[in-house]
Amino acid sequence: MNFGRLGASSSPRKAVQPVTKYLFIDGACLRTTIEEIGKRYAPGQLLRVDYDRLTGGYDKVFYYDALPAKRSGETDEDFSIRRDAAISFHDQLGSLDRFHVYEGDTRRSPSIRKQEQKKVDVMIAVDMLTHSFRRNMQHASLLTGDLDFKPLLDALVIEGMSVTLWFPPHKTNKQLIAAADQRRQLDIQSIYPALRPASKALFYIPSGSGEPSRGDIGRVLHVSNSDNGESKIV
Amino acid sequence: MFECQDRTYVLATPNPNPGYCTYWTHLDLTILKHFAFDVLGLAVPDAVT
């Protein structure tokens, strides 16, 4: 009787297959988050991002954004400049390897008196579900802060897809965050490494170092108690 | 949050290792306050200057 060698396997060892990851970007969310971060960390400056670097690690990136609509009182010339800039930006993104850009429309809503994106949300939902059903990807990431996408995340999770939500903190509903399998904050810490050198040179961000507690290391400016939300200024 | 003698600002936050802290240092208090709120979720009042 041959019991074989201890630990030996009769089948050839299988190579570990890399996980195929797709990223789906709500362009309006990414654009406004980068603009707001720029206003806080480099006022008066436009932050330029290396999108190839920002999305490193994903096999494909799908970017969805609406072309701007004409604002009330805006001249045809100003509108044309703004729209051409958006088209040029989409063309640049679309020329990057791995990137696919899809454009929706923007219309002015008379009821809520602001611009509304059309088609974009449905395009994202259709594409994420289609890639999921076809098993084109093993992991899906969605960059958004829009609660409207919660049913989409629920459907993807039920389908067995591993889903990460990449969201702007303080602006994203907790229900949306809870619907994902994994969460990642879209904040200065995730965007700064992907800034172009000229933008990176405008400022730097704090880096944390773990050290034995040194007590009061200077004049105390503020004490915060995260357990009960209390804080005091000294 | 501390102001040190070398004009740097330091934010000390709890560290998973007992007896340790994570120290976040910056020369610009405004950036440190934004970072504390955006990344760490710690609101520092505007009155802190």
Q: Which ranges of chain A are low-confidence, i.e. pLDDT below 50, for 5 or more consecutive residues?
A: none
Shape of chain B: globular
Arithmetic mean of pLDDT of chain A: 88
Radius of gyration of chain B equals: 11 Å
| pLDDT averaged over residues of chain B | 88
Short description:
The complex is a heterodimer of chains A (234) and B (49). Chain A has 234 residues and is α/β, with parallel strands linked by helices.
Question: What keyword list fits this structure?
Answer:
A: alpha/beta; 7-stranded mixed β-sheet; two-stranded antiparallel sheet; 11 strands; B: 49 residues; alpha+beta; 3-stranded antiparallel β-sheet; 1 helix; 20% helix; globular
Q: How would you sum up this structure, described in words?
A:
The complex is a heterodimer of chains A (234) and B (49). With 234 residues, chain A is an alpha/beta fold. Chain A is 32% helix and 24% strand. Chain A is built from 8 helices and 11 strands. In chain A, the strands form 2 sheets. Chain A has a 7-stranded mixed beta sheet with strand order 4-3-2-1-5-6-7. Chain B has a 3-stranded antiparallel beta sheet with strand order 1-2-3. With 49 residues, chain B is an alpha+beta fold. The longest helix of chain B is centred in the last third of the chain and has 10 residues, at 29-38. Chain B is built from 1 helix and 3 strands, in the order βββα. The interface between A and B is medium-sized, with 33 and 37 residues.
Summarize the helices and strands and which ones pair or pack.
The complex is a heterodimer of chains A (234) and B (49).
Chain A: E1 21-26, H1 27-41, H2 51-54, E2 60-66, H3 76-95, E3 99-109, E4 114-118, H4 120-133, E5 139-143, H5 150-158, E6 162-167, H6 174-179, E7 182-185, H7 188-191, H8 197-200, E8 208-212, E9 219-220, E10 222-224, E11 231-233
Parallel strand pairs in A: 1-2, 1-5, 2-3, 5-6, 6-7
Antiparallel strand pairs in A: 3-4, 10-11
Chain B: E1 2-3, E2 9-14, E3 20-26, H1 29-38
Antiparallel strand pairs in B: 1-2, 2-3
